[in-house]
From TrEMBL:
Organism listed in the record: Siculibacillus lacustris
Domain of life, per lineage: Bacteria
Organism phylogeny: Bacteria, Pseudomonadati, Pseudomonadota, Alphaproteobacteria, Hyphomicrobiales
UniProt keyword annotations, A-Z: Glycosidase, Hydrolase, Signal
Protein name: beta-glucosidase
Keyword Transcription regulation assigned: no
Catalyzed reaction equations: Hydrolysis of terminal, non-reducing beta-D-glucosyl residues with release of beta-D-glucose
InterPro entries: Cellulose_Degrad_GH3, Fn3-like, GH, Glyco_hydro_3_C, Glyco_hydro_3_C_sf, Glyco_hydro_3_N, Glyco_hydro_3_N_sf, Ig-like_fold
Length: 719
């Protein structure tokens, strides 16, 4: 028998349930509820009634508990230690939505690798990321944690993050097990309200929300976290059809399902379980392996077995999966391998800070740059830095910042003073980030009047972004809009520096500003990265991973709509349109500018007809068209003109960042695999249907900027 079989055969019922129980230690409780008040004792650990721990940090503390687990318990089964390492551990990188704006899978993988190295040096073995919830509604606060609106981007992001965290060997002492979350369609909550119900079509589920999770499974992710929500009345924590039938049986997932915080117990509140006993049985039968911080498994599973609501075979299979992950992580053979003080740090502090600076700069998006006001000259009159985010180091880190230290975070004022040593930087907050005090506006206006240019540092506090931070009107908070109007009224040129974790809907401000630079929450090197861009040391290269609405009434909004029988026609009344607003977002998916420009030529497919199942090679001629050396993502879309089900007007199939020097030309060659031409048929199974496909390339999803060619996909050999 294997080690795992031997252990399962030797375990008592309490020990088996203990392996499925995850509790929080060492961190402030973030929710209240039946699971939040548990205070597990060392006696529970010694009795084998505890298998996993989250929120405990510090190598010495973790190793002390691990020593008890492996030396003082009957079977010596090691503990699994986990933490939300979302966008860095000690080194703080940009939030995921911001980092996605770089459109660089190499960068996504590298920041995950650096974070994993830091976390495992502190003895952690599991992280609850990447978050793969696509979101098309910026009212939902957790849009900040995910990869935006597009399923192809989400899939590429998933693969990069899983590789970065886990490497190719989970037993490595610097490998951090990744958890793909929140399965599935959490980003589609009703009205953008966190934890609310989700009700979408099966087609939308399979075409939009599942692909990123399938990519994570194919990349070997160790764990999946089901979402808090229900999908059409089926709470994810108890949905066997998805957790087991789809993910395990169809996709071949071999890892564990770990519940979100108290989510198993919340099956009672969902109304699908009458008590914790029924909740425990429902979750276990569905395939849930770890119960995080609810009383359901520890208090309900015994009784569920007695009542016949579940059986011992199901329990044993669940325990085996948990033990198998611990074995894959090398915890049985090297329980103290992560956090071994004899293992030197993989990176120097300078290397980590350099990557944080690179990631922050690459993620920032320049939306407007009227009269080429940016970059700013190295010499000249005073620069006014006005707004409540001018010296807000904490907000630069954003939500879920791990163990990032705001004392080490470079705020905007620090970064600008370092970047413009020969220009005076005048700083005034004007207002608070989220308060009603306007007494500082007059002083801020006076500072603006003394300057050559105003950098207006406004946005959304980090505490108002993320989980449980839905907003009915995602815009500037507090009295920032009043400050902005007063500064704009001075007539001085205004450059908006926007700190945010989602699109903030302030169309008047973006129209009035000379330039708008979206910073997101850029991390520990925020100020230096902003200084690099404003001083022209590098050209902005970030592009929007989400459509940016001009009004809350357009939400949900995304570029991949399906064609309608009455498409919008300018001047026609009975077409799909608003009567009081344009249909288009203020800024489309992929929008962004640099200090130089690249001309994107018409795509040149290698053939105008291919057989279903063949790849297509497309050549795209690129030429630097003026300004500085620059980088820009090139987007390749397809549109299937006629199919058995109506296809979106644009489907992203490839993106790639290309850099050109002044005067340089280049031909980019892209290969679209056969799967790029597939759609889900009426049975929701993938198929390639014959017909005409538009191959469209450009700098964004704005159809007015795209250049195209037509390719026919046939079922017969090409003559």
């Amino acid at each position: 028998m294997s080690r795992i079989d031997d252990l399962v055969a030797a375990m008592t019922l309490d020990e088996k349930i203990g392996q499925l129980t995850m509790i929080s230690l060492g961190a402030e409780t973030i929710v209240t509820g039946p699971g939040a008040t548990r205070e597990p004792s060392i006696a529970e650990l010694r009795e084998g009634r505890l298998g996993s721990v989250l929120n405990l940090v510090g190598r010495d503390r973790i190793h002390a508990l691990q020593k008890i687990a492996v030396e003082d318990t009957r079977l010596g089964i090691p503990l699994l230690f986990a933490l939300d390492v979302i966008h860095g551990y000690r080194t703080c990188f940009p939030v995921p939505l911001g980092e996605t704006a770089a459109f660089r899978p190499d960068l996504w993988e590298k920041t995950a690798r650096f974070a994993a190295e830091e976390a495992t040096e502190d003895a952690l073995a599991l992280t609850f990321t990447p978050m793969l919830d696509l979101a098309r509604d910026p009212r939902w606060g957790r849009i900040v944690e995910g990869p935006g609106e597009d399923p192809h981007v989400g899939a590429v992001y998933a693969r990069a993050k899983v590789r970065g965290f886990q490497t190719d060997d989970l037993a490595r002492p610097d490998a951090l097990a990744a958890t793909a979350k929140h399965f599935v369609a959490y980003g589609a909550v009703t009205a953008g309200r966190d934890y609310a119900s989700v009700d979408i079509s099966e087609r939308t589920l399979h075409e939009v929300y599942l692909p990123a999770f399938r990519a994570a499974v194919d990349a070997g992710c160790a764990a999946i976290m089901p979402a808090f929500v229900d999908l059409a009345g089926r709470p994810m924590s108890g949905d066997r059809a998805l957790l087991t039938d789809l993910v395990r049986s169809t996709w071949g997932f071999e890892g564990i399902h770990v519940s979100d915080y108290d989510a198993v117990g919340e099956l009672v509140a969902h109304g699908v379980a009458g008590d914790m006993v029924e909740a425990a049985a429902l979750a276990l039968n569905a395939g849930m392996d770890l119960d995080m911080m609810s009383p359901a498994y520890p208090q309900g599973l015994k009784t569920a077995l007695e009542r016949g609501l579940t059986d011992l075979a199901t329990l044993d299979a669940t325990v085996r999966r948990v033990l198998a992950l611990k074995e894959r992580l090398g915890l049985f053979d090297a329980p103290f391998g992560r956090g071994d003080p004899a293992r030197p740090s993989a990176r120097s502090r300078a290397e980590r800070r350099a990557l944080a600076r690179e990631a922050a700069a690459a993620s920032m998006v320049l939306l407007d740059n009227c009269d080429a006001i940016l970059p700013l000259a190295a010499t000249g009159g005073p620069i006014a830095l006005i707004g409540p985010f001018a010296e807000a180091a904490f907000d630069m880190m954003g939500p879920w910042y791990g163990l990032g230290d705001q004392e080490e975070t470079i705020d905007l004022a620090q970064g600008l003073r370092a970047a413009f040593r020969d220009r005076e930087i005048l700083v005034a907050a004007g207002v608070e980030r989220d308060g009603d005090d306007v007494s500082g506006i007059a002083a801020a206006v006076a500072v603006a009047a003394q300057s050559d240019v105003v950098l207006l540092a406004v946005g959304e506090p980090a505490g108002l972004s993320g989980e449980a931070a839905s907003r009915v009107r995602p815009g500037l908070t507090g009295r920032q809009a009043e400050l902005a109007r007063a500064v704009v009224a001075t007539g001085r040129p205004v450059v908006v520096l926007l700190t945010c974790g989602r699109p903030l809907i302030e169309p008047w401000l973006y129209d009035a500003a000379a330039a708008t630079l979206v910073l997101w929450y850029p991390g520990g090197e925020a100020g230096h990265a902003v200084g690099d861009l404003l001083a022209g040391r590098r050209s902005p290269s970030g592009r929007l991973p989400v459509s940016w609405p001009r009004d809350v009434g357009q939400i949900p909004l995304h570029y991949g709509e399906r064609p309608t029988g009455r498409p919008f026609l300018d001047g026609e009344h009975f077409t799909t349109r608003y009567i009081d607003s344009p249909n288009d977002p203020q800024f489309p998916f992929g929008a962004g500018l640099g200090y130089g420009s690249i001309d994107i030529g018409k795509p040149r497919p290698a053939t105008d007809r291919l057989i279903a199942g063949e790849s297509l090679t497309v050549a795209i001629d690129l030429a630097h068209a003026g300004g500085m050396a620059c980088e820009t993502p090139i987007f390749v879309f397809l549109h299937d003109r006629v199919a058995s089900t109506s296809r979106p007007v644009l489907e992203l199939k490839h993106f790639e960042v290309v850099g050109l020097m002044p005067g340089e030309t280049r031909t980019l060659t892209v290969t679209l695999p056969p799967a790029a031409f597939a759609c889900l048929g009426p049975d929701l199974e993938p198929r390639i249907e014959p017909g005409l496909f538009d191959v469209l390339v450009g700098p964004s999803a704005d159809r007015r900027t795209l250049k195209g060619a037509v390719v026919e996909v046939g079922t017969a050999p090409v003559a």
